[in-house]
Amino acid sequence: MSVLISGTVALDSVETPFGKKDNILGGSAVHAAVSAGFFTPTSIVSIVGEDFPKEHLDFLEDRKIDTSGIKRVKGQTFRWSGYYEYDMNQAHTRDTKLNVLTEFDPKLNDSQKKSDFVFLANLDPEIQLKIISGLNKPKFVAADTMDFWIKSSREKLHEVIRKVDFILMNESEVRMFMETPNLPLAAKRLLEMGTRAVIIKQGEHGALLFTQNFHFSAPSYPQEAFRDPTGAGDSFAGGFIGYLARTGDLSDGNLRRAVIMGSVMASFNIEDFSLDRMRRLKIREIMERFEEFRKFSEFEALSVAHWV
Ligand code: AMP
C-alpha cells in the first residue's frame, strides 16, 4: 500500500561540529518521503516557492516519489537554519522562515484522499487538521510535531493528537508538551488524549513505543559516522510508516519491527548532510543493519529456579 506524506519541503542551512552547509535540500516531508520510498510508493503534499531548485524535484521524481502534490507558488520556500553542538541530540534553531507555508491550503486529489497510510510530518497543526479532514477512511494516520508548534499552537496540537493513531515526538518535546520530566507518564497522558500509540524518539539513544497494552524500546546504534542529525526524526517516521504500509500488518509484533526499521533509517540519515547518505543507500544495507539492531538487544532468559 502507498503512503501519503505532508510536511515541509525546505531549504536548510545547517552547522554541526563536522561542517556547515547553506541552502541544502531538507524539510520534514522530504526526509520522511525519501525514507518511506525505500519500502513503498510514496507521495508528498506540500508547497514550495519559485526559488526552489528544479534539481531537487528531479531527485525526488527519480526516486519514484510522486511530487504532483507539491504546489509551486510565487514567493520564497520555507527555510530553516540551525546548529548542533557536541550533543547532537539537541537542535538549536537560528531562524525559521515560514514564507509560502503561511498560504498553504492543502487540497488532496482523489487518489490522495483514498490513501490508507498517512504521515503528517512536522507542520502547522492547523494544516495537519485540514489534511485529516480531507481523508476518506484511512487505515493508519501518524503525526509528528516539534517545539515550534507546541509553543505556538498547543490547542490545535491537542486536536491533532485526538484524531491520529500514532503520535511521534522527541523526548524533550514530549516533556515540554506534557509538562513532566517522566516519559512513561507523559506517554500515558498522550494515550489518554485518544491516540492509539506514542513513539518517543531519543536521538542517538533509540526510541520508545507506548501503546495501551505494551511498551517496546528500540536500542541505540553505536554510530561512529555521525555528521548531521537533521531529518533523523523524519527518516525514522518514514521508515516506520513505509515498512508498515509495505507489509500491511499492524500487529503488535510488526509494530515493533517497524520501530526498528525507523531506527535503521534514522541511523543512515545522520551519516551525512541533507539527503546525501540516502542518495547512496541500498536496500541490502538497510536489511543488514536491521539484523545488527536485532542482535544488539537479543539476550537469553535466566532460569528463575536457579536464583530463588
Ligand atoms: P528533524 O527530523 O526533526 O531533524 O527535522 C528536520 C527538518 O524539519 C529540517 O529539514 C527542516 O527543514 C524541517 N523543519 C524545521 N523546523 C520546522 C517547523 N517548524 N515545521 C516544519 N518543519 C520544520
What is the CATH first-level class name? Alpha Beta
Mean pLDDT level: 95
N-C termini distance: 50 Å
The assigned CATH architecture is: 3-Layer(aba) Sandwich
Structural summary, described in words:
This protein is an alpha/beta fold. It has a single domain (3-307), classed as UDP-N-acetylmuramoyl-L-alanine:D-glutamate ligase, CATH 3.40.1190. The chain is 40% helix and 24% strand. The chain has 13 helices and 13 strands. It has helices at residues 28-36, 54-62, 110-113, 125-134, 147-152, 154-163, 171-178, 183-192, 232-247, 252-269, 276-280, 283-296, 304-307; strands spanning 3-6, 10-16, 19-26, 42-49, 65-73, 79-83, 92-97, 117-120, 140-144, 166-170, 197-201, 207-211, 215-218. The chain has a nine-stranded mixed sheet with strand order 5-4-1-8-9-10-11-12-13, sandwiched between helices. Helix 2 links the parallel strand 4 and strand 5. The longest helix has 18 residues, at 252-269. The radius of gyration is 19 Å and the shape is globular. The model has no long low-confidence stretch (mean pLDDT 95). Adenosine monophosphate (AMP) binds at residues 8, 10, 12, 26-28, 31, 80, 96, 122-123, 146, 148, 230-234.
